[in-house]
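To the wet lab folks,

You asked to see what we're planning to order before we commit. Fair enough. Below is the target structure as tokens, and below that is the sequence we designed to fit it. If anything looks off to you, flag it before the synthesis order goes out.
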């Protein structure tokens, strides 16, 4: 009997893996010019307003996928269409290798990219893992409130000034949100009309609360929106939230990357300001689909490329760095490896590195992790409305994402790139980042002060012009101030210029700098000033 059962399992696995997964990229879209000219046909007014406020262009990527192409793909032999992406103009399909390869003969198919990279003349190796293993293990059960994790990033100071995330919309992309629609901890959220809705992309249902086999999303949401009188307050109790289930906790496949991108596109169309993603992708049940550590380069994983587009669309994406610090993988995974993502590692209650927190790597294009927050024995509210402690960067990420929502409410004129930069600049080891803590623990009150300084239109003591600058930037330092040092940082926090100014009036050639927003920091013996520089 055991032999028969074992044979059945092996046979099932062989049949399952005979089915291949692939991205099918399409050639074009319909009515592109008309849609861009009339954006309300493809985006909500909130999305249009957010893009206009931060000079984010509405482009072809905002136009939906051609539905007639999808219908034709569904009619192809042996092909099942599981998801679609307007940003990539692609669909995610499942079928045999032969059936998928045959799709390339269709006139509207640009290319096919198999999830099994060996079929694309590229080999992979990997391992199987339970991504929620660390986070589902309770630390010593304890009642209490979130005081330490809130005060650690100084978001409590913003709350005292009534900056609690109001007016900021957050999309939570996760694996399950049971009881959020009934729990007392989210009663305040519901009563205030701040639970805006959601969608289950895995089961294709608008009832995002129906799936109850995994509670990860409920706990993640509690870090931001949870409220129990005298026991617990999240970091953005007055923000508004969309809940999207993109993670299939029962299996691990690249389809989840596609569902994540689809949800990010939905978030963009709804005018979301912040995405919190306490999910990471590196290994799959079918090891042929898995990534290697070399793939965590900020450009390879499909979800990473999607996260970068979300950033280009003006969404501030906050993602957990991962829980692989103690295993052979170690480094930050996708999508947190994306240059456009603010990746968050974990520390304990005293601010020390949590050894499970994934680490940065010299091969990654930007500093990873970006920053850290409490993720070891973090306080969360579980699906039974009890306050418990869990481990994981899944919780340091929303703790900070909620704090950033409160910060953005306080600095409504700042762009998402500027907000990220203020957060980095406020962190405890901004001048000496490393692969464990990144720039360190943010101080959001300091980030607010930095933002206020940058937003000042003029300074009586310093002057830079023209701004925006194209080739030559004029710098004026008042007489009487000596030994002035100038540093320029890009929006990723990278120092690109460090020099001493020898004269009260200087000129700086910025023609070689890429277009974008920069932070200029002037330091002298008795004063300091910050400017926002726009390179056109």
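Sequence we intend to order:
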């Amino acid at each position: 009997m055991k032999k028969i059962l074992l044979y059945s399992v092996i046979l099932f696995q062989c049949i399952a893996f005979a089915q291949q997964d692939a991205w099918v990229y399409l050639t074009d879209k319909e009515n592109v010019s008309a849609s861009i000219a009339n954006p309300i046909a493809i985006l909500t007014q909130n999305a249009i307003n957010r893009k206009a406020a931060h000079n984010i262009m509405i482009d072809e990527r905002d136009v939906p996928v051609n539905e007639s192409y999808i219908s034709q793909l569904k009619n192809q032999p042996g092909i099942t269409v599981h998801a679609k992406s307007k940003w990539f103009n692609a669909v995610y399909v499942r079928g045999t290798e032969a059936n998928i390869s045959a799709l390339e003969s269709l006139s509207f198919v640009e290319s096919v990219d198999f999830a099994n990279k060996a079929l694309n003349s590229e080999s992979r190796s990997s391992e199987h893992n339970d991504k929620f293993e660390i986070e589902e293990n309770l630390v010593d059960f304890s009642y209490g409130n979130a005081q330490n994790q809130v005060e650690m990033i100084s978001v409590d100071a913003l709350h005292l000034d009534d900056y609690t995330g109001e007016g900021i919309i957050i999309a939570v992309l996760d694996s399950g949100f049971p009881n959020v629609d009934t729990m007392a901890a989210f009663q305040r959220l519901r009563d205030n009309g701040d639970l805006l809705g959601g969608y289950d992309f895995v089961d294709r249902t608008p009832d995002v609360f129906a799936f109850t086999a995994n509670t990860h999303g409920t706990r993640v949401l509690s870090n931001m929106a949870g409220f129990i009188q005298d026991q617990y307050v999240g970091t953005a109790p007055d923000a508004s939230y969309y809940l999207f289930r993109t993670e299939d906790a029962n299996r691990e496949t690249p389809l989840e990357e596609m569902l994540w991108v689809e949800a990010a596109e939905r978030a963009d169309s709804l005018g979301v300001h912040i995405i919190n993603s306490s999910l990471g992708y590196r290994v799959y049940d079918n090891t042929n689909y898995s990534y290697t550590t070399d793939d965590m380069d900020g450009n390879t994983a499909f979800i990473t490329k999607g996260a970068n587009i979300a950033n280009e669309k003006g969404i501030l994406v906050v993602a957990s760095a991962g829980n692989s610090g103690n295993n052979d993988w170690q480094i930050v995974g996708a999508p947190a490896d994306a240059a456009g993502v603010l990746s968050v590692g974990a520390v304990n209650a005293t601010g020390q590195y949590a050894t499970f927190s994934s680490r940065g790597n010299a091969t990654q294009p930007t500093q990873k992790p970006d920053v850290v927050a409490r993720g070891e024995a973090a306080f969360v509210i579980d699906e039974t409305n009890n306050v418990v402690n869990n481990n994981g960067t899944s919780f340091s990420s929303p703790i900070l994402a909620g704090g950033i929502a409160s910060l953005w409410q306080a600095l409504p004129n700042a762009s998402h790139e500027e907000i990220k930069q203020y957060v980095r600049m406020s962190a405890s080891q901004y001048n000496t980042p490393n692969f464990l803590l990144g720039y360190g623990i943010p101080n959001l009150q300091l980030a607010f002060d930095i933002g206020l300084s940058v937003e000042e239109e003029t300074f009586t003591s310093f002057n830079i012009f023209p701004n925006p600058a194209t080739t030559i930037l004029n710098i004026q330092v008042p007489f009487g101030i000596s030994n002035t040092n100038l540093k320029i940082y890009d929006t990723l926090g990278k120092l690109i210029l460090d020099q001493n100014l020898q004269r009260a009036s200087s000129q700086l050639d910025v023609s070689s700098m890429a277009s974008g927003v920069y932070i200029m920091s002037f330091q002298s013996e008795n004063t300091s000033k910050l400017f926002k520089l726009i390179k056109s």
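Structural context that might help your review: The longest helix spans residues 393-410. Residues 4 and 10 are 10 Å apart (CA to CA).

Thanks,
Computational group
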